[in-house]
C-alpha cells in the first residue's frame, strides 16, 4: 500500500534549479530517434517531453509526488501532460517546484484497490515568469501489473 | 524554418513508424531521461514483479509519438501535449504514430489548432493516446 503523508498533499515542495543544455537536448532527442529538424542550430526548442529530464536534477522522479511513496514494482504511468506558456530552448535557466494535487483510490478490474496520485510541477524562467507545467498521474496497482 | 502546410481541421500528421524497439533503446531512453526504474532494464527485477521481460518507458512511446508534431506543427508552437498510456511497449515492438487536427480554438490571445494523436503497435493495439494544442502563426 502506498505510504501517504496527508499533511503534505497540496503543499509545494522545495525549488530546484536546472539549466537546459544543448547536449542534453541532443541526447534526449537521439533517444527518441528525433533529428530535431534541419534548422535546430545551437538553441533548438526542446522536444515536447524534454521536461521529463528533471529526473537528473532530482535524483528520483518520485519526489515530484510530494508526501507519497509508491512501490516501483507496482507503479504504472497513467497520464502525462505538458503545458507550455512559451517554448523551452537550450540555454534556458529554469526553477521548478512540485506538489501532489490529489490522491484517491479506485477498485481495480482484478479486485483490490489501485491508488492514483496526481502531481504537478511548475517551471519559471530566470525572470520569474511561469513558462511550463508538467502534470502526472501515477498508479500503484494492488497486485503484479498484468503482463 | 521548415516550410509548413496550412493547418486546419482534417490536416493529417504522420504516419511515422519507429521500431522494432530494442532493450538498448529502453536503456538509451533511461539514460537520456534519467528515469532508471529497473523495471525497464533489469530482467530479474521485471520478472520478479510479474512481467515476462522488461518493458519500455511509457514516456519513450509518448516522446516518439510527439515527433509527428515536429515538422508540420513545429515544437515552438506547441502549447499543450497530453498523453494516456494504454498498453506497454515490449522489445521487438514497432510503433506507428499518427494524428490529425480536429478543430480550432482561441486562448491567451492566439488562434490555436487542437488535435489528437495515436501510437499503435504491430498487433494493432493502441499504446498511447494523445491530444495537443498548438498556436497558429499570427
Keyword list:
heterodimer, A: 147 residues, mainly beta, Thiol Ester Dehydrase, Chain A, five-stranded antiparallel β-sheet, two-stranded antiparallel ribbon, 2 helices, 7 strands, 38% strand, globular, B: 138 residues, alpha+beta, 19% helix
Helix content of chain B: 10-25%
In the predicted model, the low-confidence regions of chain B spanning at least 5 consecutive residues are none
Instruction: Supply the number of structural domains of chain A.
Output: 1
CA-based shape of chain A? globular
> What portion of residues of chain B belong to β-strands?
35-45%
Describe the global form of chain B.
Answer: elongated
Q: Superfamily at the CATH H level of the domain at 12-21 and 56-135 in chain B?
A: Hotdog Thioesterase
Question: What do these coordinates show?
Answer:
The complex is a heterodimer of chains A (147) and B (138). Chain A has 147 residues and is mainly beta. Chain A has one domain (11-140): Roll (Thiol Ester Dehydrase, Chain A), CATH 3.10.129.10. Chain A has helices at 22-31, 55-58; strands at residues 3-4, 16-19, 68-69, 75-84, 93-107, 113-124, 130-140. In chain A, the strands form two sheets. In chain A, strands 2-5-6-7-4 form a five-stranded antiparallel β-sheet, with no helix packed on it. In chain A, strand 5 and strand 6 (113-124) form a beta hairpin. The longest helix of chain A has 10 residues, at 22-31. Chain A starts with a strand and ends in a 7-residue tail after the last strand. Chain B is α+β, with helices and mostly antiparallel strands and 138 residues long. Chain B has a domain at 12-21 and 56-135: Thiol Ester Dehydrase, Chain A, CATH 3.10.129. Chain B is built from three helices and five strands; from the N terminus they run βαααββββ. Chain B has a five-stranded antiparallel β-sheet with strand order 1-3-4-5-2, covered by helices on one side. In chain B, a hairpin with a 5-residue loop joins strand 4 and strand 5 (126-135). Chain B is elongated and about 55 Å long. In chain B, 41% of the residues are buried. The mean pLDDT of chain B is 94. The chains are: A mainly beta (147), B alpha+beta (138). At the A-B interface, helix 1 and strand 4 of A face helix 1, helix 3 and strand 2 of B. Strand 4 of chain A pairs antiparallel with strand 2 (78-85) of chain B, so a sheet runs across the interface.
Amino acid at each position: 500500500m502506498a505510504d501517504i503523508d496527508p499533511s503534505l498533499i497540496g503543499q509545494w515542495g522545495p525549488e530546484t534549479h536546472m539549466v537546459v543544455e544543448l547536449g542534453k537536448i541532443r541526447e534526449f532527442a537521439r533517444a527518441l530517434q528525433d533529428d530535431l529538424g534541419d534548422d535546430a542550430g545551437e538553441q533548438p526548442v526542446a522536444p515536447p517531453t524534454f521536461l521529463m529530464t528533471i529526473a537528473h536534477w532530482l535524483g528520483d522522479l518520485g519526489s515530484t509526488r510530494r508526501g507519497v511513496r509508491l512501490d516501483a514494482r507496482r507503479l504504472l504511468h497513467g497520464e502525462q501532460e505538458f503545458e507550455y506558456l512559451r517554448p523551452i530552448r537550450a540555454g534556458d535557466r529554469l526553477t521548478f517546484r512540485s506538489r501532489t494535487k490529489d490522491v484517491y483510490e479506485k477498485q481495480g478490474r482484478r479486485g483490490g484497490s489501485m491508488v492514483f496520485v496526481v502531481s504537478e510541477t511548475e517551471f519559471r524562467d530566470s525572470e520569474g515568469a511561469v513558462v511550463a507545467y508538467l502534470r502526472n498521474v501515477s498508479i500503484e496497482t494492488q497486485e503484479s501489473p498484468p503482463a | 524554418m521548415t516550410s509548413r502546410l496550412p493547418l486546419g481541421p482534417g490536416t493529417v500528421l504522420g504516419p511515422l513508424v519507429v521500431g522494432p524497439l530494442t532493450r538498448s533503446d529502453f536503456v538509451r531512453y533511461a539514460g537520456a531521461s534519467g528515469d532508471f526504474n529497473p523495471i525497464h532494464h533489469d530482467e530479474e527485477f521485471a520478472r520478479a514483479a510479474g512481467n515476462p521481460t522488461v518493458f519500455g518507458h511509457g514516456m519513450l512511446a509518448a516522446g516518439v509519438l510527439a515527433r509527428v508534431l515536429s515538422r508540420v506543427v513545429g515544437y515552438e508552437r506547441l502549447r499543450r501535449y497530453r498523453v494516456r498510456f494504454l498498453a506497454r511497449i515490449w522489445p521487438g515492438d514497432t510503433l506507428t504514430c499518427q494524428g490529425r487536427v480536429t478543430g480550432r480554438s482561441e486562448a491567451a490571445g492566439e488562434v490555436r489548432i487542437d488535435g489528437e494523436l495515436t501510437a499503435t503497435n504491430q498487433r494493432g493495439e493502441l499504446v498511447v493516446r494523445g491530444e495537443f494544442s498548438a498556436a497558429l502563426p499570427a
